[in-house]
Write a structure and sequence with these properties.
Elements (H helix, E strand, L loop, with lengths): L19 H7 L11 H16 L11 H10 L3 E2 L9 E6 L6 E9 L7 E5 L7 E5 L1 H5 L2 E5 L4
Antiparallel strand pairs: 1-6, 2-3, 2-6, 3-4, 4-5
């Protein structure tokens, strides 16, 4: 895993959406804490990985999960929820259906026979962490899954 996203990196103080790590990942989006930062964290991971291997970032840096999903969906990268694999981006709705709010994580372990998944997420809690979901827990507010090529 890229060092910037090591488990435990996150908010200072916890529960605040503040701190130097949060400021670092919001900066490319032109934002400052406190702001939601799950999509900025995913964008930063792809930005750093793209720089490391010398390729263009596959999508525009986005501070919004719904915006990031729409960008990738328009490129035809959406995958069926029954096909989720490690490395896929997974998107959920936050709040009321029509709120426009969302959340994104990176799938660490794909579907097991029971439909469970494990993710790595930022801004789900106060730090980057692993989250395990049973099928009912992740599919309830599921928007979609994206497999970025390459």
């Amino acid at each position: 895993m890229i060092e910037w996203a090591a488990e435990g990196k996150g908010e200072t103080p916890p529960g605040s959406n503040l701190g130097p790590w949060v400021a670092e990942i919001l900066k490319p989006a032109g934002l400052v804490p406190p702001e939601p930062y799950c999509a900025s964290a995913v964008s930063r991971a792809f930005q750093l990985a793209s720089e490391k291997i010398g390729v263009a970032m596959p999508f525009k840096y986005s501070p919004g999960a719904r915006n990031l999903f729409a960008q990738c969906q328009q490129k035809g990268w959406e995958v069926d929820k029954e096909s989720i694999q490690p490395g896929d981006l997974i998107f959920w709705r936050r709040g009321p259906v029509d709120s426009g709010l969302g959340h994104v994580g990176i799938v660490e372990y794909g579907l097991n026979p029971n439909g469970n998944i494990q993710t790595v997420e930022a801004n789900h809690g106060s730090t980057v962490a692993h989250f395990h979901y049973d099928r009912e827990g992740w599919s309830h507010n599921f928007i979609g899954a994206i497999r970025v090529p390459g």
